[in-house]
Design a protein that fits this description.
Helix 1 (22-41) runs parallel beside helix 11 (283-299), helix 5 (128-142) packs across helix 6 and helix 11 packs across helix 12. By secondary structure, the protein is α/β, with parallel strands linked by helices. The protein contains 13 helices and eleven strands. The protein has a six-stranded mixed β-sheet, with helices on both faces. A five-stranded parallel β-sheet has the order 2-1-3-4-5, sandwiched between helices.
Length: 346
Amino acid sequence: MASGSQLDIKLGMSVALTGPASEIGKQLASGSRIYFEQLNKQGGIHGALIELDVRDDGYEPNHTVNNTRFFIYDKKVHALFGYMGTPTTTAIKPMLEHTQIPLLMPYTGAAFLREKPAFKVFNLRASYLDEAKEQISYLVDELGHSKIALLIQADEFGITLQKSLTAALRMRGLKPQVVGRFRRNTNEVEKALKLISNSEATAVAMVGTYEPLSRFILLSQKQNKKLAFTTVSFVSSEDLLSKLIQPSKLMITEVVPNPVSCEGKICEQFRATLNTHSLPITHAIFEGYLNALVFSRAAKMCPLPFNSSCVLNALSNVINQDDELRHLFKIKSKQKKLPIFRSYHS
């Protein structure tokens, strides 16, 4: 079927392609584009092609709102796909509720997307609460820390994870030693570092993107602070780790397997494909690739034209019914919850 058919499936993706968080958005978009391009060359979905329209929001909610209006009312996409960030997806919540357009595989573990939302959404990644529990388990149970500070991006992303981390600490009879904050899309972490350095904290659970978090770690090391650190998958682990000069006790929770070392057909095909595109093998590119793969496998279970109810139902079942995906995520047949993985820098 030629491109431009009325049966082609149109997806809109709003991510940061500029600004301090741009590497995350670029990698997510690259992974999804690569998979959809391969799929389209093979005939698409029952002959229909996937049209992925990627637009830059700079990780700023007002731009995400404008992009979403364009996708829904001008582009008339069938679904919103792979949106990046908690503050950005929070900003489009009224449009999701009003239009009931599906939001598929957003790059966020925010609670409002999981707690009986009044709109259509499918989450592939684990929740931020799941990641927070893993981080506190690492700091408390494995490293023996009890005085844990929080470094929080001052927006909906930070608020969500502050609540999750505080809840995970509370389960062990603890509370945050102190909470330092910084503004989104800035590297202004000096005040937060001073606050945390003047406390008795021996570890810091961090929430933000790779540039401010790497700056926080580097500045703390210059002050000879012997702190342990954790952060969540949103950070883009490869970009954060690449900016660290000295060894650091850092653990990053991940929501997809290590793309460099994972086994199975999907992993092998992913690595081979990226080699042909001369792209680095990263968690964010892999997640974008997996988002497109899972969507496509679910869409193939449904007849054309695109039917959101059918695709959402198929997405809910595809992980547990697809042997390759179950093997990739090491999911048992009756277990629906995706696991948390880890990256380290030490």
